[in-house]
Design brief:
By secondary structure, the chain is mainly beta. The protein has one domain (2-98): 2-Layer Sandwich (Gyrase A, domain 2). Helices cover 14% and strands 46% of the residues. The chain contains two helices and eight strands; from the N terminus they run ββαββββαββ. The chain has helices at residues 16-25, 66-72; strands spanning 2-6, 9-14, 27-34, 37-46, 52-56, 59-65, 79-85, 91-98. A four-stranded mixed sheet has the order 1-2-8-7. β5 and β6 (59-65) form a beta hairpin. The relative contact order is 0.20.
Length: 123
């Protein structure tokens, strides 16, 4: 799973392995070790009506309605956006997307990424 933080937004990009885990177990996660500590991001499907995000100890936990995830598993669905209110009146934008293979070489292993629909097309 790739995570991008920018301002009041979090972007989750899941590859094929992440998607399979999420669909099979209801959970996908990413852990980054920083010295003796770890930063943990977790997406979890729950039988809830509305999405919830919370920060606990060393991690960010995004709980998503099972119905939202079921629709997203379809091959033609790239992702979805959520806008959640913060306690201070601001909003947090969350993007959850399938991770596509890069169109240019970035010297990264994207063997588990989804085929990029723009591959072979002129921009």
């Amino acid at each position: 799973m790739k995570i991008r933080l920018r301002g009041n937004s979090i972007r989750y990009r899941l590859d094929k392995v992440d998607m399979e885990l999420l669909e099979a177990t209801g959970k996908a996660e990413s852990i980054t070790h920083i010295g003796a500590s770890a930063l943990h991001f977790c997406l979890r499907g729950k039988d809830i009506a509305d999405p919830v995000i919370k920060m606990e100890h060393d991690g960010v936990h995004l709980l998503l309605p099972l119905s939202r995830l079921a629709a997203w598993y379809a091959p033609d669905q790239v992702g979805f956006e959520l806008v959640l209110p913060n306690a201070d009146g601001s909003e947090l934008t969350i993007l959850v997307e399938k991770d596509f293979k890069c169109l240019t070489d970035r010297n990264e292993d994207d063997s588990q990424a989804f085929d990029n629909p723009m591959a072979g097309k002129n921009c």
